[in-house]
Amino acid sequence: MTPSPLDSTFAALADPTRRAILARLAASEASVNELAEPFAMSQPAISKHLKVLERAGLISRGRDAQRRPCRIEAAPLAAANQWLERYRELWERSFMRLDELLEEMKQKPRRRRRTTKR
Amino acid sequence: MPAGNLTITTPTDREVVVRRDFDAPRQLVYDAFTKPALLKRWLEAPGRKMEVCEIDLKPGGAYRFVWRGPGRKDVGMQGVYREVVPHERFVRSESWEDWDAGESIITCVLEERSGLTTLTETVLFPSREVRDAVLKAGLEHGTRDSFDKLAQLLGSMEPASV
Of A54, A94, B76, B132, which residue is 20 to 30 A from A48 by alpha carbon distance? Predict the structure, then answer.
């Protein structure tokens, strides 16, 4: 199966360190050293994560050879978010019907009776 | 009204976790999930109604659901219950009748606090591809994107532990 961009977005997001990196970059761009610091992780280890994020198009890296600042790119996350948002809407429709049913069930006094099979 | 707070997260690449609060004791929520006459009334697929609902609620018991809609193909789902703890927890396998995508495992946990019940439903898909295909299935064009939604998405995921 040809991987779609959304597949690599979800793969990139499956790791908690990478999610934390993205959360940090959502605030402002940062260098590799700045990103590595909160994790007590070696720079090569952080760089591996950054490569995954970069390949998924979730971050871009500046040209400045010294700093190579990392910047978050919103479009792939927004696309992934659209999926989840729509999926969420479908669930919510069912759950709102369940809310109504539960209200009805709370009104009914509990009594024993045969229910007919449908 | 305290019901609501629906969150959907993807903590690993094969899972989807659905959490929602309901303003009812967990016995009622449990019944709504496990009694055919009740389940049919709310568990919907777009443009379809649940016409077949058979549940044998015990470990090793089978279930089958079929949704039908005018001019649409039937959507059928079936599986076996693996664990049943009344009012608290049930685990079932799930596969689709028309789509040979393997088997998912669905774990539902109900927790009650002061008359409010929280459902945590974890769907473990057989692969990332199947998980993503299910997520994509409902997508329509034309939804908005914004950094607010981005922040929500990131905020709903667990922080990394060092």
Answer: B132
